[in-house]
Amino acid sequence: MAAAAPDFFSDALRREIIRSEQQRMRALAIILAVLLALSLTVANVFVDYVSRMFERDVPGWLPLVGIGPFLLYELVSLTILRYRAARDLDFPRVTRFANALIETSLPAAVIITLSHYMDPILVFSFWPPLLYFIFILLSTLRLDFGLSVWTGTVAAVQQMVLVLWLLPLEPWGNVPQETLLFHFSRTLVLFACGLVAGFVATSLRTQFEKSVRAVAARDRVTNLFGQHVSPAVVDRLLATRSDPPSEMRTVCVLFLDIRGFTAMTRRRSAEETVALLNAFFAEMIEVVDRNNGIINKFLGDGFMAVFGAPLDDPAAARNALAAARAMIDTVGRWNDAHPGWALKVGIGVHLGEAVTGTVGSPQRKEYTVIGDTVNLAARLEQLTKEVGAQLLISQSVLDATPCDGAVDLGAVAIRGYDEGVRVWRMA
């Protein structure tokens, strides 16, 4: 999992950048379309008003020349980006810089166009220079500090070049709009806005990275332990920031099996059977969670629960026994509520040393508990069928926690053991 995490993180970040880039392009395309529609409406409907504003007659098609190519470029770029995103292809960073340069040149194109029909000094006081701020603002969606600063720099340089080209400037004139300082201060504001946008983009990216890392860490826990771990245990596992080590530790293992379930399923449909198991196991999982255990494996119509791993629990035996008793009580309430699906269970609990750790391949690992402790707990669960019990525990469980009502069955012969194993009946 540790090796796969960086790949997961980089892939998730790359996809988020592409999604954010698509959002930015869609927003920009909408803005350009609205701007083009408004400009065409004003130029062709409010002719008298336009003639009073401009020194020369403005053709009704002029907005198409100034804005149309940029709108078309944006739509084509968005189509290409969607095509690459659908195939999980990246958007090269150098291409993004070139894209920012082309997009941010729109205000310059509009300024140059309008300067043929209006006094250039008035053009710089009109709305076209304000378009630069739209591009700088939207650059935050690129989630890249360098690209936002680049956008602000392009805007600042372009405006200053246009001022020097189109306006008769005086370093210290009496008309503010004709002084170099007046326009240079506006240029500094554009550059500063690019810096601010860069910091905002960095903040957005950092927040996303934290979210991705949190998801990756939670997925790591889910992959190792399954989905059946209580939120409190998940939070404690996340705090460790690493996979549990392979080690010998004292654990209490609980096996539960539904008696005669296979015969019951012959009278039910597959949908009913699965729905029953899901509903029943949901209550069992809640019991295990409440007693600080984890469901390590589902075994058809039963499961194996572990107490005392992967997190230390000095009260593992007490918690496992409490969980077993709560399960029996829950089965009683279940049968009262579902008379057509009355269930019987067998539970075996044993405390002892076991090997714990993660096993599997780099692509898929899971947390497991191995050893004689697990085998004996499973044998005790199977033994419940022979002795007609619901809950059997081993001597080690009895020694570790008070077991009121325990009935000594003596040394019982158990398959796989040369000597008899002392067993106690709890229910």
Strand-helix topology:
Layout: H1 4-45, H2 47-53, H3 62-66, H4 68-86, H5 93-103, H6 106-114, H7 120-123, H8 131-138, H9 145-166, H10 180-225, H11 231-240, E1 247-258, H12 261-265, H13 270-290, E2 293-298, E3 302-307, H14 316-337, E4 345-360, E5 365-370, H15 372-387, E6 391-394, H16 395-400, E7 407-412, E8 421-425
Helix pairs in contact: 1-4, 1-10, 5-9, 8-9, 8-10, 9-10, 13-14
Model description:
With 427 residues, the chain is α+β, with helices and mostly antiparallel strands. Helices cover 59% and strands 14% of the residues. Strands 1, 2, 3, 4, 5, 6, 7 and 8 form an eight-stranded mixed sheet that branches. Strand 7 and strand 8 form a beta hairpin. The longest helix has 46 residues, at 180-225. It is elongated, with a radius of gyration of 36 Å.
* Poorly predicted ranges: 1-6
Q: Structural class, from helix and strand content? A: alpha+beta
Helix and strand element order: HHHHHHHHHHHEHHEEHEEHEHEE
- Apparent shape: elongated
List keywords for this structure.
single chain; 427 residues; alpha+beta; 8 strands; 59% helix; elongated; disordered N terminus
Tell me briefly what this model is.
The protein is of the alpha+beta class.
